[in-house]
Automatic annotation (TrEMBL):
Transmembrane segments: 12-33, 73-90, 97-117, 181-200, 207-232, 238-255
Keywords: Hydrolase, Membrane, Protease, Transmembrane, Transmembrane helix
Organism: Chitinophaga oryziterrae
UniProt protein name: Rhomboid family intramembrane serine protease
Example of a GO MF term: serine-type endopeptidase activity
GO CC annotation: membrane
Length: 267
């Protein structure tokens, strides 16, 4: 079955409503208390790399309720409501909540896996430079890790003083990168997007409220775009693309687990 025709449809079902409220309240707390607490809210509840001193297990869940900007919050919550409402009406609140949390956890685990690889690579390259420092090697590191972007711009080190400054700078960069926070419900939301496209591939979505496109094409395009963006890892891109893809992966695995025998009888 590719079309959903419910006999009774709740526009704002229970779990969706509560998720919207909680995310809104947390965002309000971030921007009213965050400055006075010197960003300790993010340190405590946003997701950190497990090699960081700031990492705590509860962050695997709490980061789902934090957002970096009003636009970030709006896009996630709008998408959650737009596509998640159909799924909650279909499954009921308990199954939908399980699905949402599993996708969010899966996204976090995939993102932590990517962070592990990136931090190990960065540490290895910086240690190699510290063992054999040279201006050429420093420039290579600058280009590889985009260290000329933003606050990490540093001139070509030639004097002993500049070389010492380069060493300090790289050690500081490693520490800051290790402690970088990740926040947002996007991984869980991408899981919901995939589930909608998987269950209702031929439902029509209207881009800009004008142009019809089937869900399977629109959502498939978004997933492919995330994969390309994650592989490119463009300079200045602070989006956790592999967290989004992790949400998609765990969405697929959970859907297959719930429906091992026959997709047509999923619900």
């Amino acid at each position: 079955m590719s079309e959903f025709r419910p006999s009774r449809f709740e526009i704002l079902p229970t779990v969706i409503k509560n998720l919207l409220i909680i995310n809104g309240l947390v965002f309000l707390a971030q921007y009213t208390l965050g400055a006075s607490l010197d960003h300790k809210i993010e340190d405590l509840f946003a997701l950190h790399y497990w090699g960081s001193d700031l990492f705590k297990p509860h962050q695997l869940i709490t980061h789902l309720f934090m957002h970096g900007s009003p636009e970030h919050l709006f896009m996630n919550m709008f998408t959650l409501w737009m596509f998640g409402s159909t799924l909650e009406n279909l499954w009921g609140p308990k199954r939908f909540l399980i699905f949402y949390v599993v996708c969010g956890l899966g996204a976090a685990l995939c993102h932590l896996g990517v962070l592990t690889y990136e931090n190990i690579s960065l540490n290895r390259d910086v240690q190699a430079f510290l063992s054999s420092p040279s201006a050429t090697n420093f420039v290579l590191l600058q280009h590889k890790y985009d260290l000329t972007f933003g606050q990490y711009e540093l001139s070509y080190p030639t004097t002993p003083e500049q070389m010492e400054a380069a060493k300090v700078f790289l050690q500081q960069y490693v520490s800051e990168y290790r402690d970088t926070a990740t926040l947002g419900a996007s991984g869980a939301v991408f899981g919901i997007l995939f589930a909608f496209g998987y269950l209702f591939p031929n439902n029509l979505l209207y881009l800009y409220f004008l142009f019809p496109i089937k869900a399977k094409y629109f959502i498939g395009f978004l997933i492919i775009l995330e994969l390309i963006s994650g592989i490119q890892n463009s300079a200045g891109d602070n989006v956790a693309h592999f967290a989004h893809l992790g949400g998609v992966l765990f969405s697929y695995l959970l859907l297959k687990t719930w429906n091992r025998k026959n997709r047509q009888h999923f619900y």
